[in-house]
Amino acid sequence: MNAPAERVELLPGTYRDSVTLMRVSRTLAERSGVRDAMVAMATGLNLDLLDRLGFTAPDKAGPNDLLVALRADDEPALADARQALDALLAEAARPAPGGLGAPPSPRTTGAAAARAPADLALISVPGPYAFAEAMDALSAGLNVMVFSDNVPVAQEIRLKEEAARRGLIVMGPDCGTAVVGGVGLGFANAVRPGPVGIIGAAGTGSQQLMCLLDTAGVGVSQVLGVGGRDLSAQVSGRSTLQALAALDADPATELIVVVSKPPAPRVAELIRAAARRLDTPVVFALLGPGQDDLTAAAGRVLAALGRPEPRWPRWPAAPPPEARPGALRGLFAGGTLCNEAMLIASRALGEIRSNIPLRPEWAWPGGATGGHLMIDFGEDSLTRGRAHPMIDPALRLDRLAGETAGDDCGVVLLDVVLGYAADPDPAAALAPAIEAAVARGLGVVVSLCGTADDPQDRDRQAAALSGAGAAVFASNAEAARHAVALAGGTPEGAG
Amino acid sequence: MRPNDTARLNGLLDRAPRIVATGTAVLAEALAQQAVPVETVDWSPPPPGTEDLLARVLGDPRRADADATAVRRVLSARPQWVDVRPAREVLGLEPGTFLHAGPPLDWDRASGPMRGALIGAMLLEGLAGTPEEAERALAAGAAHLSPCHHHGTVGPMAGVVSPSMWMFVVEDARHGGTAYCSLNEGLGKVLRYGAYGPEVIERLRWMSAVLGPLLRAAVRRHGPVDLRAIIAQALQMGDELHNRNRAATSLLVRELAADLVAGDAPAADVAAVLRFVDGNDHFFLNLAMAAAKASADAGRDVPGSGLVVAMARNGTDFGIQVSGTGDRWFTGPAGTPDGLYLASYGPGDANPDIGDSTITETAGLGGFAMAAAPAIVRFVGGEVPDALTATQRMYEITMAEHPDYQVPILSFRGTPTGIDVTRVVRTGILPTVNTGMAGRVAGTGQVGAGLVAPPAEIFTAALAALAEAVPRQP
Question: One Pfam match, by short name (chain B) (predicted)?
Fold first, then answer.
């Protein structure tokens, strides 16, 4: 075969959102003759990935420049791909205004809010720009969900002060999920309506809880995200307090559940005092050392409603033909699911390295490590200029291939989070990678967070994943315990 | 639940929410999948390095009230034409002092048409006998130059005002401000476009001897002329008050004619004045500019406000002033307009953008009201849909809609008024300006008309100054 033809270029000042660029990259990569295609904003993270793909980064690349890297079998294929890229980018550009007198598309949240009555703004621009858009929304009297991460905490506080002044709520920043008035926002699962109102400072924690409740036949009234830092000493529960009052006033909500990491002590006191003043009972699901896991918390909620706890669905797999010993590697899209798995696994296995470590001394600096490791691919530094791993599996697949090829990993634990806005068929990309891992003797365990009504269909996904050789669990805690057992640990309370 | 507590979060939990989505398309698509109404924002990032400035300015607790106050003052101004007087009297201009358009400028950096107009003004004031003599004196620093805007004044194109020129006096009956503008000379070879030939000087002399005094007598007899009312009507008759003033000029003559005739001036002078105004479709422009200046000035000096209160060009620099940053100018290179050329002139003949007439855009007229003036879109090189789009795009960068200045074809929507520095930086949408083009060589006159945009960096500079002025949090 001829030497491949390559091209790396920078298109300054050309902006497209990360999901659009992921789709463009995918479409280009699927063309015949194209070996690698990467079209992304030139953030540090994407430049690293460029390097790993064996390209040389152009000089002076900045996060507002569009980076194009193509590798094809030969020059004609390369030229074809480059031309196709222009067409794809043009397609993804703003739509032409309609007929005579049709106004051009609004360019700011404020301008959009002025056009038609609205209740809520959903902001998902890159973090450094989110404040301006969120402030627009509040000024126009809209509640805000800030999906964006990488928002400075001082800006979060300023937004929440403004919201409190106006009797509104800021959900987020880094709020991945919400269900409001029956509508799923961000990464939300298709769950039945019901009596439970969830307040979540932990996005995938809320998703796990609502999915387990749905499986048990119990629906939710609302799910209000508040952002992972809301219960920190700095932010002081500003949005949680707003959410508690709003859910107390909501006729559909009979029971409130607060899902969070353990709050800062002073804030915990504040929240518990506020909860005591409500007419609606409040259940706390605080994920931390010595606390219930989310599955146990779901059991407590069911008990409070007088409902039995079911046996949580699982889709077993035969153990790998030649299981190889080695460390446990957790590769997560959901930060809360990752945290819960580490809490469970560290009790049996001790030290677990991570980019969201349980203890500061367990921090993982990146790269290879001999011991147990769990990575949250949704963490801020891994999403700069990239879509969230629930949408874009590239970084996680890259790591999974690395673990498969290496020789120190014995068990891989993955989460697969379904719902609106998530990858329409995550099993399609994961199944071949899982098969390859199992063939190399790795144990693969999947925590599958979803419902039967999700667009991806949980049961179909489960079948595909277990068919590929993974043991699949609806409960993240059960998945973690199973993975620990495969890794040779003896988890307490295994069942 | 608590029964009295139903309107929490603006009723967010009571119904399926109506949503504005800004950012990742996939999240808006997920809403569409659930059949939820979504207004999507066509978002793109602001220039690198501005995100912290924007956060600081937009997070300023004073901002919402400051902007509301500043723009409310602009919208509520009631400009009235009350008098016509020589510049030496109303502005206290001394011999050898000249006002000019745009931000501050000296002779060395002055462009061709600015130099031509200054030469003409030297000749008019008798400070030089020939153009060459005038030029030498100006180059030697014999004259004192000062921006019109520093004297409550605006001047079209070169905007040169000398002591003997007569000025429209416009008062804001609501807030008490006063603004001045010279009398319009007509089109072609005229001082404001940098021409200084004998016919130019002769016309200016006649304007000081006959036109000014007759207009003064007429307006004093008539009493204050409500310019806001004339502008509102003219917008509904196809003017945008910058490049088209035909309707407004006609309305003005209709209103003033009886008081012109009723005085004791010789009939031949009255006829000459009426004939002069009839021959000049832009006669009202200078009143529109003074009205816009009086209105925009009402919005000045509100701490924390990012309202643009002046946009002006001197043929070399384009400058803006902002409510929250006082009299400071933010300047960058003036661009060359894009449009159509008269006769055999072409792009090589055009001078960079010049004039204070951008005060009309500052007050929600001109390019911002382009949709009201489809008759002239071809003159500035466009088609009717472009005019509608131009006005509609300006709503993205303005704070308000004018209650009286309305655009019929947009269902009488008020014109986009009050440029917001933060929105210009965030969207990258620059104010649309309709303008005339002066020849680059001194003495040429007008060579065309077209559209021009200010340099983007002056808005970023203004944003940085606003950010600097935000009080530190205690």
Answer: AllG
